[in-house]
Amino acid sequence: MSSELSSATSPPAQLPAHTGVHGGLRLLLALLMAFGPLAIDMYLPALPAIAAELNASSGAVQATLAAYLAGMAGGQLFYGTLADRLGRRLPLLMGLALFTLASLGCAQAQSVESLTAWRLVQALGGCVGVVMPLTIVADRVRGAGETARVLSQLMAVLGVAPIAAPTVGGAVQALLGWRGIFGVLAALGALAFVLVWRTLDETLPRSARQHPPLPWRRVLPGYAGLLAHRGFVAPALAGALARAGMFVYISASAFVFIRHLGLAPLAFSGVFAANALALVLSAQVNARLVRRIGPHGVLRWSLPGMVATGLYLALLGATGHATLWTLLPGLMLFLGLLGFAASNTTALAISSSQAQQRRGTASGLLGTMQFACGASAGALLGLAGDTGPLAMGVAMAACAALAWTVFRFSAPRAGQAL
């Protein structure tokens, strides 16, 4: 039994050549990674219209978002395993086909229960866009520093999605109704399917695939084995916890700015775009900076900087000085620092020796950890009731502090500790 496990997870005799990520491939990977935020953010302006047409409560309609997040978290483990068994291209095509068909199902839903079910299936297809780009980057790029640089460039393109998605979704709703939003998502899924089919070469040759395939009953123990290696789990968990601070911001920002500060929805959209832009710009800077001081050098100041910024936001809430012009700089700084932390923690995890042996499995586990930590942080924040600036700041600071602590005290080698 142990020999079966070791043979299925040992390093392959022949790894694919490292050829970099350039030009059209970079844009294609960014498009694939954008499915998650697009499918979440595009339909947010239409939630009231969906509730009205389907005669559903606001809570029932919000459950369609929870179903999507659940599918995104759980499905990545499945695709990670498939990627190591079958290569990257076939599972990617399967996921995109499922996303496209489920988007059409959402567009035709006649009840909120049907819409919720189709959203779950849509996520089970769309989550392939999180797993496979990371896996392909790991196939084609050598070293944590270069991986961090490529991921920063992908994040810069990806960052456009949350800026534009609510506006695009609102425009599509005005022209075609809320069902048209899912029609657009289906068209994007079909476009991505064609692009992958016509332009993407397989990055994992047969000689480098898991052989013999790990039995399905051994899949979960395989993930547990990966979690046992500090070289992977320390940066992976640190990155997931840091991103949880962003989930806190997304969950709380509407209550803080609209309910507590009285901003109009249009003004709030501007705040949301400004913070997303900070994330995009910092990722661009990181792509250059990481070549000079490496991922650990960047994390040495970005993670504690996130802690300090979260404490600043909490202090504003505690002292009653939370206004648009005091909160906005702090939030932009927090998300800007996240742009540095997210790319480098992901690069270190995916470039660790254990992750290199099982790149698809590692990518799936990374995504699941990120969504699980984010969902947990959002659920805990909900216990605060009427979320205000103080609760938001405390939760963001706590996520950043946990991320810094995990990475500082769980680094794989003493020389890598911050």
Number of strands: 0
Q: What's the CATH H-level superfamily name of the largest domain?
A: MFS general substrate transporter like domains
Helix content percent band: over 70%
* Euclidean distance between termini CA atoms: 39 Å
Number of helices: 18
Whole-number tally of structural domains: 2
Q: Rounded to an integer, what's the Rg over CA atoms?
A: 21 Å
How large a portion of the residues is in β-strands, by DSSP E? under 5%
Shape: globular
- Which second-level CATH architecture of the largest domain applies? Up-down Bundle
Main sheet properties: none
The overall pLDDT average reads: 80
What order do the SSEs take from the amino end to the carboxyl end, as H and E? Answer: HHHHHHHHHHHHHHHHHH
Unreliable stretches covering 5 or more consecutive residues: 1-17, 414-418
Under CATH at level 1, the class of the largest domain stands as Mainly Alpha
Structural class: mainly alpha
CATH fold label of the largest domain: Growth Hormone, Chain: A
Protein name: Bcr/CflA family efflux transporter
Family: Belongs to the major facilitator superfamily. Bcr/CmlA family.
Membrane topology: Multi-pass membrane protein
Subcellular location: Cell inner membrane; Cell membrane
